[in-house]
Amino acid sequence: LLTLSDGTRVTTVRQWERRRRPELLALLADQEYGRTPHERIKVKHETVAVNPAALGGRATSQQVRFTFSGCGRTVEALLLVYVPNDRQGRVPVIVGYNYNGNQTTTLEEDVLPSPSLRWMDYSETAQARGYQQSRWDYEEAIGRGYAVATMCYNDIYPDKPSLRDESVAALFSDYDAEGVAPDEWQALGVWAWGSSRIADYLVRQSWVDRHGLALLGHSRQGKAALWAGAQDKRFAVVISNDSGCGGAALSKRAFGETVARITHSFPHWFCTNFNAYADREELLPFDQHALISLMAPRHVYVASAEDDAWADPHGEFLATGYADAVYALYGMEGLGTKQMPPVHQPIMHDSGYHIRTGKHDVTAYDWQCYLDFCDRHLKR
Ligand code: GTR
User: What pTM value is reported for the model?
Assistant: First the structure.
């Protein structure tokens, strides 16, 4: 982590920030996630619904339509925000994508279905109101003084290779429907970009503490959250829940999901340069601890689940711990141990980690830990 490509040892924050950090960002873009375009496309925001009596009167919900446009086309996305009614001044915000649509994150009747539902062939059950409400502990977050902002990730890039033309990527001027360049961004890169557009909106709201943005992602969205947080320093806390291969887990362990498996099952997630590391992880010029370390001196929290071997909990723990070297440069405290903690014994320093019992999921226990970690770092 602390050796430049020319062999120079990095011993100061200045060298890290001026030389090594940009070098790693460029490597991750070229070889794994693809380049994020510099071009700015048009985004329009319209508040389509406000409910001051949401969550039994404890919150105000706002639903905001984002219309992205470029190259004569548009893509619509819908942001759902819950803001605590009992607040003094600005509040921190937990930002995260949901999987099956905003309407699946809550039982509240007025929450509109996400526009991308029309692309996805979810069963009635999978798109039903409240279907994934257990993953969104709005009550707890609101009670602890946090707003929550969520959008369906499919609104930004519908998660199928065949739907690339319907994604936000197709709005950029160098988009080529016929093929992708080897270092071109694909879904993970586009999802990460979308999180930054949510941040653009939030930091302009009068109720938002712009220094209090936490980005939370589960699984494939845990991967995208780390990549977004690496690029966008407005996210003061980045939380990766069960992100596994291409997220927090070390690729070179090749334990659970491997580069070969993931690039084969999901050819539209990473840039195509990444395919070259299938069964050849040892050739990667970095590993995922590099991605995690790019959050420093901001805060990163990684979580695993005991029955989620596919995501390689031990590899997620080790990668988080290897990033300690960069926190140390800043005089900050990383995990501070190479010994994996037992279940339900979170480590919460400048970076953090826990493993809980149970399967691949986001649970109330995870939210408790994330809010505890945010309390430490976002509440002033
Ligand atoms: C799995 C995939 C994982 C993870 C997961 C998810 O099928 O192998 O990398 O992304 O999906 O996003 O739920």
Answer: 0.98
